[in-house]
Design brief:
This protein has 214 residues and is mainly alpha-helical. Helices cover 74% and strands 0% of the residues. Helix 6 packs across helix 7 and helix 7 packs across helix 8.
């Protein structure tokens, strides 16, 4: 008989950890398939093959393809918000966004900290799906508010670190300006990947100075 010791996790905790690891493995496979083929063209059979599991096993974790898409969207949006929450107030936004532009332009995937998860193609798929699916649209709106709050919080801390405090209306305006800048930069990286780094850096410097100065 095997007994759990005080130093060993309970069996149910280990089982839960294995189940979560399998779930993340499926989501990773789905992300790769959806980035390549899109939400609707990517099939359950392709995702299962990419994850190296049977379709039957995949359905133990996700009821259907729609549930898989929603889980993937939730994971992506939560990760993006977490990246903002943990970004130091002293971060160099110009160089960080320039690095994002260059890697997006090369078709790589990353977040603002270079952790290798965000994807312009996935963002485009999520946005398009929100136009078709009201549940996705609601998820996107909810996370959008949370992300804007996180950005406003980052700007607030940045201001405090420099000995000033902006009013809420000013923070809202600067938050929107930064979001427009980042989202536009992602699309520009796809459409015009050959922009000279110095050109992008100078434009970013001009815009970021406005965002940070208030």
């Amino acid at each position: 008989m095997t007994l759990n010791t005080p130093d060993a996790p309970p069996a149910e905790d280990a089982a839960a950890a294995r189940a979560e690891a399998q779930r993340q493995r499926i989501l990773d496979a789905a992300q790769r398939c959806f980035i390549t083929r899109g939400f609707h063209a990517g099939s359950v059979s392709e995702i299962a093959a990419e994850a190296d599991i049977s379709q039957g096993l995949m359905y133990r974790y996700f009821e259907n393809k729609r549930a898989l898409i929603l889980a993937l969207i939730e994971r992506q949006l939560v990760h993006d918000q977490d990246a903002i929450d943990h970004m130091p107030a002293s971060s160099d936004l110009v160089e960080g966004l320039l690095r994002c532009y260059q890697q997006w332009a090369r078709g790589e995937t990353l977040d603002i900290r270079g952790n290798g998860i965000a994807s312009v193609a996935l963002f485009a798929e999520i946005t398009a799906e929100a136009h078709r699916d009201p549940v996705v649209a609601e998820v996107l709106r909810r996370h959008d508010k949370q992300t804007s709050a996180a950005i406003a919080g980052w700007l607030r801390q940045h201001d405090i670190g420099r000995g000033r405090a902006a009013d809420e209306g000013d923070l809202e305006r600067r938050t929107l300006l930064l979001r427009l800048l980042v989202e536009g930069l992602a699309m520009r990286a796809v459409r015009d990947p050959g922009l000279a780094p110095d050109t992008v850096r100078q434009l970013l410097a001009d815009m970021i100075s406005t965002v940070l100065a208030g």
